[in-house]
């Protein structure tokens, strides 16, 4: 029995669980607050994004609330190589792109770029160095030039060169005003392939170190899909792409396949992966 100062007598079996509850609540409180303070102290978010050599993912764990997506995942992204992400729907491919592009930071484990922890890198610095190609390209009612340069101070020559590399030459020749041609809202006066190519030109002119492609060619027909994927694989950037299609003679241009499966990632050389697929 425990006698409280107000004279009330409590049985130990009532008090102990309460004490335990208090203890665990304070543990959780400390974990949240101290963890937060430590994080703030440990991660300064002031470093520039450098990617001269590799991005290294080490013992990565990530979940959406109770849903576990990655469990103890480790792999490397080497500069300049082309990676194809494969895996069933819902396996975590888009989530992996979000982790590598700093959309989510509430993971366990470590992601480093040339040895610098992602959580120390300025988000703006990363954003300056990456580009995305999604199914829905965002285009606005303005000239082709501005849709590619996105109001950064690129010269006409630079934008033209990027457009050519992205395979837009034919379109520019067709349009009376070339790069000054106005696009309709959301690029309604362009084909699906042309819209994708504008987003590729954006990545090229920006000299993005990494190009993330999430199903970039799935809205295109076979012929255009082949062309766009071929263009993506010919540019100098490191490419991390999700594609469900297999294009004979093009898919093998990837260097590696990262297979996302059951919370893990298996890495194969593209050659090895597609040889086995063919069997
Ligand atoms: N914001 C979110 N909140 C909760 N669950 C999510 C969220 N985003 C994705 N998920 C779930 O996480 C799992 C992985 O999703 P993800 O989008 O990464 O899969 P995916 O491999 O890209 O699939 P798909 O090939 O269909 O695009 C799925 O089960 C999905 O429902
Ligand atoms: Mg996806």
UniProtKB/TrEMBL annotation:
Pfam families: ABC_tran. This is ABC transporter. Transmembrane segments: none annotated. InterPro entries: AAA+_ATPase, ABC_transporter-like_ATP-bd, ABC_transporter-like_CS, P-loop_NTPase, Type_1_exporter. The lineage of its organism: Bacteria, Bacillati, Bacillota, Clostridia, Eubacteriales. SMART domains: AAA. Keywords: ATP-binding, Nucleotide-binding. It comes from Clostridium frigidicarnis. The keyword Cell membrane does not apply. Residues 55-279 form the ABC transporter domain. GO terms for molecular function: ATP binding; ATP hydrolysis activity; ATPase-coupled lipid transmembrane transporter activity. Gene3D superfamilies: P-loop containing nucleotide triphosphate hydrolases. It comes from the Bacteria. PANTHER family: ATP-BINDING CASSETTE SUB-FAMILY B, ATP-BINDING CASSETTE SUB-FAMILY B MEMBER 6. Signal peptide: none annotated.
């Amino acid at each position: 029995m425990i006698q409280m100062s107000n004279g009330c007598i409590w049985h130990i079996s009532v008090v102990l669980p309460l004490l335990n509850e208090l203890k665990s609540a304070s543990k959780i409180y400390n974990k949240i607050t101290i963890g937060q303070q430590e994080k703030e102290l440990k991660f300064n978010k002031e470093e520039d994004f450098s990617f001269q050599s590799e991005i290294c993912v080490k013992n990565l764990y990530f979940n959406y609330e109770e849903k576990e997506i990655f469990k103890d995942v480790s792999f490397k992204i080497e500069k300049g190589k082309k990676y194809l992400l494969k895996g069933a729907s819902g396996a975590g491919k888009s989530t992996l792109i979000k982790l590598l592009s700093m959309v989510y930071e509430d993971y366990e484990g470590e992601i480093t770029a040339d040895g610098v922890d992602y959580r120390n890198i300025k988000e703006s610095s990363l954003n300056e160095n990456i580009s995305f190609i999604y199914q829905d390209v965002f285009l606005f009612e303005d000239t082709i030039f501005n849709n590619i340069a996105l109001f950064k101070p690129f010269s006409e020559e630079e934008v033209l060169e990027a457009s050519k590399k992205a395979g837009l030459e034919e379109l520019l020749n067709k349009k009376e005003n070339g790069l000054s041609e106005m696009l309709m809202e959301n690029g309604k006066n362009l084909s699906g392939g042309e819209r994708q190519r504008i987003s590729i030109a954006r990545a090229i002119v920006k000299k993005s170190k990494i190009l993330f492609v999430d199903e970039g060619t799935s809205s295109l027909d076979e012929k255009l899909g082949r062309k766009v994927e071929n263009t993506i694989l010919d540019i100098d950037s490191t490419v991390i792409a999700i594609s469900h299609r297999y294009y004979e003679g093009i898919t093998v241009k990837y260097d590696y396949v990262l297979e996302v499966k059951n919370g893990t990632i298996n890495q194969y050389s593209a050659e090895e992966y597609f040889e086995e697929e063919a069997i």
